[in-house]
Amino acid sequence: MEQNDSFQHISLEDFIALDKNSVTLVDLREPDELLVSAIDGAVNAPFSGFPGNLDDIPTDKPVVVFCNHGTFSEEVAEILADRGYAVSSLDGGYRAYRTAAERPAAAEEKPAACQLRRDPVLVDAKGMKCPGPIVKVADYLRDKPAGTVITVEATEDAFASDIAVWCDRTGNRLDWLEKQDDIICGQITRQDPAPAAIAGELPNDKTFVVFSGDLDKTIAAFIMANGAAAMGRKVTMFFTFWGLNILRRPEKVKADKTFIERMFGFMMPRGTQKLGLSRMNMGGAGAKMIRGIMNAKGISSLEELIQSAKDHGVRIVACQMSMDIMGIHQEELIDGVELGGVSTFLGSGEQSDMSLFI
Fold this sequence. Notes:
The protein has eleven helices and 15 strands. By secondary structure, the protein is α/β, with parallel strands linked by helices. Helix 6 (215-230) runs parallel beside helix 9 (302-311). The longest helix has 16 residues, at 215-230. The protein is elongated, with a radius of gyration of 26 Å.
């Protein structure tokens, strides 16, 4: 170890050879970074929480702190040394340690991600974008008995956080999670559904008021709705004013309308393919660019997200009052839409722990 004015540096070689039981390891990374890359036995004290989380660090043994690259750990080591800790900072941080730990296997042919730990059932979500991986896991496990074990593989970085939260909120067990060769892999054990909410416990339904008719905001709304449905939540989407255009059939529908109603219908977009962006629409070119990028990156289109929402029981409600004002008739709406008013929305909202106005 190299002595500093107030703390020590510990080299990667010395750290690897160190008896980890003789020290307290302190991981300064944020909790979501630990989901796929933790060191067993380390105390998590995120750098963002300093110095408020100093009480989480024991004083009975020497301390070794590390972050991703070794920069933040030096700052924290200096703070701890000033407070009387015998402390060292790991040179190069966790990245250097991970690289060294994987080096011996580099000379050999590396197995596919999770090959040695894979269960008979593999849910392959590689290449899928949010909310696809979570929806696929939920769809597979929905009718399976408790005790069913699956391995899931995905390539979207956000999946590491999403699957951990999904398991926690649905009562399923995340047995392990790791990352290898840019593939995030985990094992999930199906658990019995959580018991009914006890008296006084807040409900966990979700309600979305879709007021905007912008393409980007609509995509966001349906991504969240699909994600909530995948977590087993009851979801209501209440479409009002400009949001009603999302629910219009793309083809022209013959309906008995007044002159004003016909003018409204002429000026408003008919269906999802005609929606523009809230920013940089550029006369419709921006919306086409966004759709092209989504397709190139394997992200579900808005139309696919809407169909998925309906397939998974999302309740889609059109505001009757707004329809009357804007001259939209029920026969002009896509299939699967019900009509409702303010009481429908309020009733749903009272059973929800989240109501979003989009």
